[in-house]
Design brief:
The complex is a heterotrimer of chains A (345), B (388) and C (134). By secondary structure, chain A is α/β, with parallel strands linked by helices. In chain A, 32% of the residues lie in helices and 25% in strands. A five-stranded antiparallel beta sheet of chain C has the order 6-5-4-7-8. Chain C has a three-stranded antiparallel beta sheet with strand order 2-1-3. The chains are: A alpha/beta (345), B alpha/beta (388), C mainly beta (134).
């Protein structure tokens, strides 16, 4: 996909809760004996959910962009952990940001991929001339069955992008996008179920790697680009190993991956994962650099998006570094309280 | 305006009355007051029931008709009066007005609360109906917490230590030992108070008035009706005033100013023609220790930040400079919320009649009772004078 | 309790709770939160609607250890009087901070958080809390 007009990012924000649990602490309780897939992961406070995190990221994106609230035409929220099964998060976020009522607002679900798809759709609305600016958000408070291997990684975080067609405001231009989806049931949660299930090693080759590689290759072929044309690449990051292996399979070097690889310290933030990685990269990027982002959502699909930074990049940075540096470690008991695993009512 | 006299006073012991209902307690106190007055209960023309939480805790409103019926007084004009923890004081104010206006010759007021029917968290929630639901209760604050905000500011501004404020509780427990109506007839040490668990920091458990059940009642009448009562020592309601302050503490320009304290006290004292120094026995609304200390300062018995010294020096005890909460106060006599304002006056009546036993303040002639609703959002003050 | 599960009363306050919408008195200049018709200090009417600053400092605070029914399971938590830049005072929870780290005068900034659930299957009430400022 190539957008018919100049469309890109005018502002971005990221949010990671203050709390962390070390993988070793999870292992202390469940003691699998295997090597832990991350060092630690983010844990939302008792008063946080995917909606509140999305709000914080979106407010930062909006403020960074300097765009008037009345000119924001869309709020697209990608998440697999909305606080309500039925009732949109997008309306609460739009209301709290002061964007209501004249705004397109929708919650979107595609496991860990909904955030990048929100970005593509926002770009489409902008490129079509339907709206001037739109907010695309990826946010998740990932749930895992206690003791499940997912519990080591299921993290919490959000990232938001103010997608705009206003050339002067853009800090990165969206060059190409490429979506690659198939019916591949590697991970799911049935209606009414509290925790998701997954198909263990089936989540690897036929799911994550097939779709990541398919989307990335598709984009590069369509755009006539090769791995060395990119300064950075950000993959969906369910753990630390998978993105590094995907890079290797596609011919990227670890140096291209590592700036946007955060799963070791915040875990898998699902729909936010690749977008928080992108925020990290944009905070570090210089003008005229090319970035490839490839998400992966179970079920399954990947969105590959290539961006080129403008002179505006780096003028303002997100609060991500500060959020990553303020950490409060919790033990499994407090973690269970915060995650709602311990229920009092 | 007609002069108003208290000719009868009665109360139940304050405590956990598992076997008695709200109506049982109200009727017991009411009939005790009527007997004390030596009149026929059917001479009572109007009944004012001070109560805060019957709607929340018992699902019971319409207390006027309910209590009148169960007391065998159906037919009287009867009402519930609600002003949070000042419900009892507010009901007495209404009863006073009814007689002073000349409309009625004889009325009764009963303050009652039955708190132990509900679970602790639900009592906490019910008490919070006294605050702004949308912008205060919404935050998860509790009444202990709101008073704790005041307490912390007080210590900070005046450099007062918590031990000094907390001593107020020690005083109240010492007084309650000799009060057969008190919920806690035992002394506590300052160490016990200071090592009790925090409820809402800095406030500790033993700085809080307890949860309890109880009812207190008074019979009020005018001079004409006095002839029907055999009592020779009479107590006059010499002043009665109610004032409000901005409801929520955080919105007050100075959360320590307690404007309502002064306003209500000044109005009641002016009506009675007295000054604070004339008061022989004082009842203050020490739902939390800090409120007791703040009241002593607001009424001018001590400069700001120095109220605690009166406690430390024993000046609140009978024989002291300003005998205060001589029957145990809210802390130890107990604080059955809607009953408290009436209990305070019941305690003063016993002092003025010379019936206070071991804690008698010799020659007490003038008493002042201060009853608060919310964090002093409502203040009801009564000045009582012994007459013969 | 019936009143605790009212949806309309939460809905009608949403903008003020989500966005710190205060009122500025045209007569005495006082700034109050939330916006209302009449100035509590001077009684003047027609308060101007203003979006209040998101930064302030702690005037006083407490740690709630025995919560009301609808906050059971959240304790302990901190409730504070926060004075916003410009003078309006807000009662709110502090979050992302240990009770023992809170100080009077501490600089704080607004965040958007959950306050309570009306019941496990009822609506969730959101609003402004404050965290230590960076």
């Amino acid at each position: 996909m190539k957008f018919s007009m100049n469309v890109g990012i005018a502002g971005y924000g990221a949010y990671v809760p203050i709390y962390r649990i070390r993988a070793a602490e999870v292992a202390r309780v469940w003691g699998s004996g295997e090597e832990e897939p991350v060092r630690e992961k983010s844990v939302p406070g008792l008063d946080e959910d995917s909606l509140t995190m999305a709000y914080e990221a979106a407010r930062e994106a909006l403020e960074m962009s300097g765009v008037e609230r009345s000119e924001v035409g869309a709020v697209l929220v990608g998440s697999e952990s909305p606080p309500y099964a039925v009732k949109p998060s997008a309306t609460v976020i739009a209301e709290a940001l002061g964007l209501t009522p004249r705004v397109v607002a929708i919650d979107m679900e595609f496991a860990c991929k909904a955030g990048t798809t929100a970005m593509i759709l926002a770009a489409g609305l902008v490129a079509s001339g339907a709206i001037k600016h739109g907010l695309a958000i990826g946010t998740d408070n990932a749930q895992a069955r206690p003791g499940d291997e997912l519990e080591y990684t299921a993290g919490a975080g959000a990232a938001a992008y103010l997608v705009s067609g206003d050339g002067d405001r853009l800090l990165a231009v969206l060059e190409y996008a490429y979506s690659y989806v198939t019916d591949t049931p590697d991970f799911w949660r049935r209606e009414g179920e509290r925790y998701p299930r997954h198909a263990y090693r089936f989540t690897g080759a036929p799911a994550y790697f097939n779709h990541i590689v398919g989307a990335a290759k598709g984009l590069m072929e369509e755009a006539g680009l090769k791995p060395s044309d990119f300064d950075y690449v950000v993959f969906h990051q369910p753990n630390v190993k998978f993105p590094l292996r995907a890079a290797q399979m596609l011919g990227f070097k670890p140096e291209q991956v590592k700036p946007g690889l955060l799963s070791g310290e915040i875990g898998n933030t699902y729909a936010a994962a690749s977008l928080i990685g992108l925020a990290r990269v944009l905070d570090a990027a210089k003008p005229n650099q090319r970035i490839l982002v490839v998400s992966f959502g179970s079920g399954a699909g990947s969105d590959a998006i290539s961006l080129v930074t403008t002179e505006n990049v780096g003028k303002k940075k997100s609060s991500l570094e500060r959020l990553l540096s303020r950490k409060v470690y919790v033990d499994y008991g407090l973690y269970a309280k915060m995650k709602g695993i311990l229920r009092v009512a | 305006m007609k002069r108003v006299f208290i000719v009868g006073a009665g109360a139940t012991k304050v405590g956990e009355h598992w076997d008695r209902s709200l109506r049982d307690l109200a009727v017991e106190a009411l009939l005790a007051a009527v007997r004390d007055a030596g009149i026929d209960k059917r001479d009572v023309q109007a009944l004012y029931v001070g109560n805060m939480m019957s709607g929340e805790l018992q699902g019971q409103e319409h207390l006027g008709a309910l209590v009148a019926t169960w007391a065998g007084m159906a037919g009287v004009a009867a009402f519930k009066v609600e002003a949070a923890c000042a419900s009892g004081g507010a009901a007495l104010h209404q009863a006073y007005l009814a007689v002073a206006s000349g409309l009625y010759d004889c009325v009764a007021v009963v303050g009652v609360e039955k708190m132990t029917d509900a679970l602790p968290h639900d009592v906490t929630s019910a008490l919070l109906t006294a605050e702004d639901q949308e912008y205060v209760v919404f935050t998860g604050a509790t009444f202990v917490g709101l008073n704790a905000l005041v307490y912390r500011m007080y210590m900070s501004r005046y450099g007062v230590k918590q031990e000094d404020v907390a001593r107020f509780a020690v005083h109240c427990h010492k007084m309650a030992v000799n009060n057969p109506y008190a919920q806690f007839r035992r002394e506590v040490t300052l160490e016990e108070v200071m090592s009790s668990p925090p409820i809402a920091d800095p406030i500790r458990l033993l700085e809080c008035a307890p949860v309890g059940d109880g009812a207190a009642a008074l019979v009020l009448c005018n001079e004409d009706f006095l002839k029907r009562s055999p009592r020779d020592v009479l107590v006059e309601v010499a002043g009665s005033a109610v004032a409000t302050d901005i409801l929520s503490v955080h919105e007050r320009r100075d959360p320590l100013a307690m404007a309502g304290f002064r306003k209500a006290a000044e109005a009641a004292m002016k009506r009675a023609g007295i000054e604070a120094k004339d008061v022989d026995v004082l009842e203050v609304h020490d739902a939390f220790t800090v409120l007791g200390v703040l009241t002593l300062e607001a009424l001018g018995y001590a400069p700001p930040g120095k109220g605690w010294q009166l406690v430390a020096e024993g000046q609140l005890e009978p024989g002291g400079e300003i005998p205060t909460n001589t029957m145990g106060g809210l802390k130890a006599r107990g604080h059955p919320v809607g009953g408290t304002g009436v209990y305070q006056v019941f305690d003063i009546v016993r002092q003025l009649r010379g019936e206070a036993g071991a804690n008698q303040v010799e020659g007490a002639e003038i008493g002042l009772a201060q009853n608060l609703g919310g964090v002093a959002g409502t203040v009801a003050v009564h000045v009582l004078r012994r007459v013969r | 309790m019936v009143w605790a599960e009212s949806v309309p009363r939460v809905w009608r306050e949403r903008a003020k709770k989500y966005r710190l919408l205060g009122g500025k008195c045209p007569a005495c200049g006082s700034v109050v939160y939330p916006h209302r018709q009449v100035c509590p200090y001077c009684g003047s009417e027609g308060l101007q609607l203003v979006e209040l600053p998101r930064k302030g400092r702690v005037i006083s605070y407490t740690v709630i250890r025995h919560p009301p029914s609808d906050f059971v399971g959240k304790e302990p938590y901190v409730v504070a009087i926060v004075e916003l830049e410009g003078g309006a005072r807000v009662l709110a929870q502090l979050t992302d901070v240990k009770p023992e780290e809170v100080r009077e005068g501490m600089e704080v900034e607004a965040v958007f958080r959950r306050y309570r659930e009306q019941s496990p299957d009822g609506i969730i009430e959101y609003g402004i809390k404050f965290r230590p400022a960076h």
